[in-house]
Amino acid sequence: MTAQTTSPTTTRNAPAGHVPAYAAPAASAPLERTTVPRRPVGEHDVLIDIKYAGICHSDIHQARDGWGEGIFPMVPGHEIAGVVAEVGPGVTKFRVGDRVGVGCMVDSCRTCDACRAGLEQYCVKGNVQTYNALDKSGEPTYGGYSRQIVVDEAFTLRIPDGLSLDVAAPLLCAGITTYSPLAHWNAGPGKKVAIVGLGGLGHMAVKIAHAMGAEVTVLSQTLRKKDDGLRLGADHYYATGDDATFEQLAGAFDLIVSTVSAPLPFDRYLGLLKTDGALVNVGAPEEPVSLNVFSLMLQRKTLAGSAIGGIAETQEMLDFCAAHGLGAEIELIGADRINEAYERILASDVRYRFVIDAATI
């Protein structure tokens, strides 16, 4: 059910407590400039001046109600990089001027087994998403397509000095979404890892898997991006539009990470795994998928899913990327090009992540 909320004001000069933002006023409506309320800085809050916000494919899914009814007006954006402008009196982790980031969630119950284990992304009661959600007070959350955001320090990340803020922003979703399954399924030396799709998620998966020491193969529909894939760290690149690929690579991989948001013929891809191999989905198709369970049973294979990472693991990912010089490949845009960027993402016309310069909002 769509939550009933007060529409953001459309005045250019934001009222007290409001900040400039870009919002979708209704499902599938073009995003437009507006203002949205931000809560006062509380005891453990940090106020962040947003410098850059990445555009994730999931922003499009949600702004267009692809995953179910959303909360409108909606300000997308969960790849946020900026600078601390103010801290609450109880804040101990950050100071004014610190470089920080915010990812896909801004709170959780903090008491369930998952939260206590540092797996806030799997909070039993449901974490609070950075946008298109209701916070613990029942107010809608608004995301990073805005000039400022207020976030609890416990869900704020430190961006290492070795990463520029613009290329770091997409790491808060694309980076952790791919790092987490690669780490969990032990990608590294001696492991053969395939990445399905070379897009916003896939290009970071290639970089990270390569830095972990795995032998990396890209599986893409065509060879159009082969040169990019090899430059980013892939050892091999195959076209899945060629049936011979599935014959040639049968039983080849320990781990396959699918980053695409379209349904896959899972039985074919499972055939590419070794015994005890795993196919992990981080892309989220809107449509149901089908599967013959014998594709799993006969070689004890695993079909799994993975959703971002916990706060500690996200910080680990940022530190890893800084240590290895891994930032996203970006196209920096002004906010007036957000709607154009959405259409280009759907047409696979970006290499590899759009990032909004928040100064243009």
TrEMBL record:
Q: Where do the Enoyl reductase (ER) domain residues begin and end?
A: 26-356
Give the EC number(s) under which this enzyme is classified.
1.1.1.2
Show the coiled coil region(s).
none
Indicate yes or no for the key word Transport: no
Question: Membrane-spanning regions, if any?
Answer: none
Give the catalysed reaction(s), semicolon-separated: a primary alcohol + NADP(+) = an aldehyde + NADPH + H(+)
This one is known as alcohol dehydrogenase (NADP(+))
Which keywords does this chain's UniProt record carry? Metal-binding, Oxidoreductase, Zinc
One Pfam family linked to the record: ADH_N
The Gene Ontology terms for molecular function here are:
alcohol dehydrogenase (NADP+) activity; zinc ion binding
Question: Which family would the database say this protein is a member of?
Answer: Belongs to the zinc-containing alcohol dehydrogenase family.
- What is the organism field in this record? Streptomyces spectabilis
Q: Which CDD domains match?
A: CAD1 (cd05283)
Cofactor(s) the protein requires to work = Zn(2+)
EC primary class: oxidoreductase
